[in-house]
Every structure is written in structure tokens, then in C-alpha cells.
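User: Hey, quick favor. My workstation is busy. Could you predict this chain's structure for me?
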Amino acid sequence: MTTLDIFADPTCPWCLIGKAELDQALESRPDHGLNLVWHPFRLNPDMPPSGMEHVAYMKAKFGDEKGILEANEPVLRAAERLGLWINMAAIERVPQTLDAFRLMHWAGIEGAQSRVMSGLMRAYWREGRDIAAADVLADIGKGAGMDADMIRRLLASDADRDEVLTREAHARERGVRAVPTYILGGAHVVSGAQPATLWRQVIDELAGGAG
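Assistant: No problem, here it is.
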């Protein structure tokens, strides 16, 4: 197995696009031989614990309505091509994603990371749910086969908060600057959402090398 380390934030639109492209490649190559490991890397590390109203966040980031539309257009175009439904109108707040990454950390222990990341992205981008809320995170974890009550108990504590922050700081020290970022086999860095064709080529080359 070759490890594919993925640095992604569920509230990052290009992480959503990148995951959809990667998923397409993996589905078309069921014997892909990749071990996906998801790592914490917050798109907005300075986001207040209560998050930020979505429209205010977009205006702060992209300026006026024209800037917001220009920023959203390529994302929505890519989503349509991939058959993804992004419901921008449903998103009321941009959350602080530290607790979402705590959930991802526990999901890694149970081998449920990709299922949990799918759940986080679906909850945020399609359903407009607050993925900083403990009940929402517990529900997402339950949907991925985890114990919802245990998740609530852990979220009510500071369990693994420092671990997640340390891992994120380590990623920044290694040179990760944006999401999504992929590191293949601990050596080859790929930045940005990549098309499924690239991942199929990677998988085929790995299979050829193994043979």
C-alpha cells in the first residue's frame, strides 16, 4: 500500500472538488492500493469559536457581490461537471473546524476517516448544517459507524485538542500552505484539486511499478 496523505478542510470548496475527483479515480480503480490518511489543516485557523456569518465572511474575503460571484463561479462549474450539489443558500455560518478535525482524528483510529470527511462535506455544502456543533458532529460520526455518545463525551472535553493543533502546526512547518495538499508516498507533493485523470495515472503507474 502507498500512503496518500491529504491535508484538507471540509469548508474549503476546492477540497470538496478535489475529493470528488479523487473518489472518481478510486471508484474506477478498485484495486488502487492507496491508503488515504487525512490530516488537520484549517482553512481559517483564526476563525472565532462561534464561527462567522457566511455572507459577512465572503464579503470580507472577496469584497463585493461581484467578487463573490467570480470566486464561486469556477467552483459551481466544477461541481456541476462532477454531479455535486452545492447549496450555497443553505450555508448560514462558516464554522471553526477544530472540533471537526478532532472527530477526524478519532475517525482515523477507527478507520472511518474518508466516510467522516464525506459526511462533514455533505453536511456543510449540501445541508447547510453547523459542523462545529457537537450534535451534528456526533450524527456525522454515527453515520460513519462511530459511537455518537462517545463522540459527544469527547467533544465536551479537551480530548486530543492539543494533538490536532500540534499536527496542524507540524504540517505548516513542513511547508503545507494551502488546502487541498496531497503527499504521495511521503515524498511527492501535489497541491490543489487535481482531476481524476491524474489520479488514475498515478494509480496505474504505481501498479506498473509494483508489477
